[in-house]
Amino acid sequence: MLNFVITSAISLAALLAVYYLLLQREKMHRFNRVYLLASVIFSMALPFISIPIYVAAQAINPIAVPQPDLPVMHMSAEVPVSAIAETPQADYAPYVIWGLYGIITLVLLFRFGKNLWRFKVLVTQNETLPHQNATLVLVDDTIVPYTFLNYIFINKEAYTARRIAPELFAHELAHVTQRHTLDILLIESLKTVLWFNPLLYACRHAIQLNHEFLADESALKQSTDIITYQQLLLQHISPKNTFALASSLNFGITKKRFTMMTKTTQKNRALLLKLAALPVLAGLVFALSTKTIAQQPLPPKATNGMPLQDSIAYKKKRDAYYSGVKVVIDDQANNVYIN
Fold this sequence. Notes:
The protein is α/β, with parallel strands linked by helices.
């Protein structure tokens, strides 16, 4: 468990650093969405990836260590009470830590399920209307429009009086068609289990802000007047928080979001920034997933292709077989005789 937490945290921290330093300020929101989701999934899977690297084992020559002459100690048969080893006390710290972790996780899981149930209640208790690829949920409360799955929650009175601008519908429809809720559900489900990891909270904020960039981009296709659209957003600023799992219209209405509406990124620059993430991924895999394994070297071979130790044993057997044999050379043609 500890190895999983450390490895995934290091990986996610490195990938988020690349995002905040290189990618966040650029107008390539679709790639950024894929990058953020892939960073989370990659970091969660990295601890389970193991790539072996085999290296030749080095022979270690034994070193003789001289043994010093130790004095002989004579001990009495009577052992003092203080010398008797005390019984080790049980370590309850791991049980306490795991108990607290389990309690907090259960509370967060309950809250996660409760938030899902609240959406179901809102849908069943209020009037719903089909609208293009979404379903409008008309609620009596004065709310800022927000989206969950394919449901767009809006104020019933404002909808009946036709006070909701088409750009706002386009904004919320972008959340529906691009399925932004699935990204949020993924991060929120991970947060219920890894609630102690602050990087997931930073990642959640980055993902949701990128969702708003995407929705703004889609809404601006309906209206070319950026100033009017920005004023429309400012009119709907509300300090009241919506559901944690929803995509809210007024999330992150800051100078950064307004600046992104007028920003452009050249294709060559975007390509270079995308490629910059590859060395980081390769470095994380090499640093955190490779495992060096010492491999026994193959035995040396003789010139005939036979292993050297087998060749030596063969020669010994051959010499033993022919030991004591007398060899006589009688070459009558050349008149050579050796005895």
